Structure formats: structure tokens, C-alpha cells
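As a warm-up, study this chain.
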Amino acid sequence: MDFRLLNAQLLPQAADLWDYCFEKKGDPFFEWYFKEYCLKQNSIIGGFDGDKLACMLHLNPYAITLRGQQVRLPYIVGVATAPEYRGQHLTRPLLETAFTVLRAQGAAFALLMPINPAIYTPYGFSYCYYRHYYKLPLTELKHLPPVQNVKLVRYADITEGLAAADAVYTACGQELNGMAVRSKAKWQELLRGYAAEKVMLAAAMQNDRPVGYMLYSIAGGTFKVQEMLTLNNEAQTALLRYAAGHLSDAETLEWLAEPGNMAHLNFAGADYCGSVRPFMMARCINIRKALELLPVPQGTEGEATLLITDKFLPLNNGLLKIKAAGGVLTHASTMDDEDVVMDVAAFTQLVFGTFSFDELVRAAKIKVNNPHQSGFLRSLFSTQRNYINEYY
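Now compare it with the structure written out below.
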């Protein structure tokens, strides 16, 4: 099996495999993705049996705000194997090739939304994003208190709501970590894709200023919130009451809200408080590069020796002394005894701030040999509220 990057001549094979495994030819997303996006904005790695594509993954370029820093990283999508090649364990060499390419390109991390997380945990991926999932009758939202100072605007052409949505999205980025950076071009691309799938957009305005937006669709009796962000409770309540106004079109609300969402405090039914669901995985590709990107919180100083293990990517294995002084973090190989031991999955979750240092210790994902260094690491790896809502 030969693993390599695809060129334009091989793209039809990738389209055929996508058609077999995911959206079908003729689907609006399929047509846009293979006509406008593939090999123009992304790259594809494939495993070939002679000239035949046996498996593939797509590396879609993204930038996220990680602890206040913009970080470029790939979003791995379209991981697929032709049915006649399944059971041959092709995922491993496919990911090995991808990681080699990504390290050469200078990537520190990769994102991935798994259909089955058990496929990817052996390769060092771990959940770094969680969401609050709601599913409840639309009638429940009728009990929410009315909001007097919020005006709702529905955009017949959702691309006309770009400025309002972007203003709210950008403001929410001041509190939420790990959000995808959306340029105007990225917003236009996103909204055109949503429009092709008959997604609609409503915005909440307060004193002529956008304070919330909701991208939604209605099908099969379900009012599905594709994305909703708000700057205050009044905007969120107004948009949920807007959803409740669709009782003639739907019976049920589905919504993957941001982590820590508290809308359930206003729901009368105890069964409708929702649940926390894992959403997206991440993986550190280059630990030293990740440490170089890590900002040092004000007033944080200290040092610790980390033993980080990576069974799948040996280049990441190492004993590193990290030191924070004067707002700068340095790292160097060392022969000192390790203060803390963790694998690459726990390290990734620490950098993303998904869990605190102490939470990972309690979960036996981190072993502490020298408790005196724990305070430094708690400060360096503070927890964050991670949010992302990208699907390709």
C-alpha cells in the first residue's frame, strides 16, 4: 500500500469514496465540497493499492483561538476506507503519513470529530470539546418569560445576517476558548453552505446592536438549532421564544449549546435539563511546538520536569524541563527525575484547558511524583470553556 497526497487527477476517486461513505452525489454539500473546496483549500492523503484509492483522510485548514493565541491547525475529516479494504488496519499507516506531513508543515495540533471515538483513542486523540445537549418539546419554551427590550430580525437571505452574526461570534470569543477563527470569507462560505441546506437565520438586537443569533432548520417535526450564541440571557430567552413560535411547524427542539449553558434553569420540566456530550477530539502533533505556543499567565513562575509519553508518535516522547519566568516559557531536554508523568492525550487536554490539572490527577491520567510542582502546573494550565461548531 502506497500512502501519498492526492492530486486533481485522483480527486474523482476521493469523490466516489465519499459518496459511498458519507453524503451522496447531488447533495448540496457534496457538490460544493468537491467543486469549490477540495484541493483548492485543503489537501487529501490517500492509501493506494496500485492506482486504486483504498482509504483517505482530508486535512482541512483551520485557525482557532487557543488561550488567546491564534493557532493554525488541520481539521481531519472524511476518514474513510473502501469496503473491500476494511479489516486491513489501514488507519494506522494513514494517520502516520498524515502526522509526518503535519509535523513537516509545523502543526502543533489536529482536530477530529469522530463517528466512533474508540477508533482514534489508540492514536492519542482525546476529547477536548464538550457541549450541553437539549432535546425537549417546543411547548416547554412557551413558559419562558417574555422579553421586552430585544427585537428579533429574520434574514430571508441568511448571508445578509453575516455582520450581525460575526459581531456576536467575535464578542463571545472573549470568553470562550478554542473557537474557530472566522474571516469574512469563512463566514460567507459557511452561510452559503447552510443556505444550500435550507438553514435559516434570526438575530436578536438590543438598542440596534446585535446581541445574539440563531442558525436553525426545521425538518421531520424538529426545530434544530444549528448554532446559537448570545451575549446575555435576554437575547437567549428571546431566541428560544422565537423557536417556540414554530409549534405549527415542529414539535421538538434540539440544541447543542455551548458548555456551561444555563438555559435549563428556566425550564419547568426536570427531564429537560439536558446532558453534557463529548463533541470534538484533538491531538498534539508536536509537544515542543505546543509548549512554544503556550502563553504564561501573569504572575506564573516556576519549573517542572515532565515525562510525556506517546506510543503512536515516538518523536513526541521525552523528558522535558519547562520553566516560566518573566512571562516566558522555555523547555529543554533533561536527565532530571520526572516530577509529573502523563501521556499525549492528557497533555493535549491540559493545553486546551478541557480539564484542570487536579481533575486529570484524580482521573489517574496524570501521575505526580513531586507534589511541590503541582501549584505551578495548576497555574500554567488553567481550565477554559471550550467551544467550536465546525463540521467539515
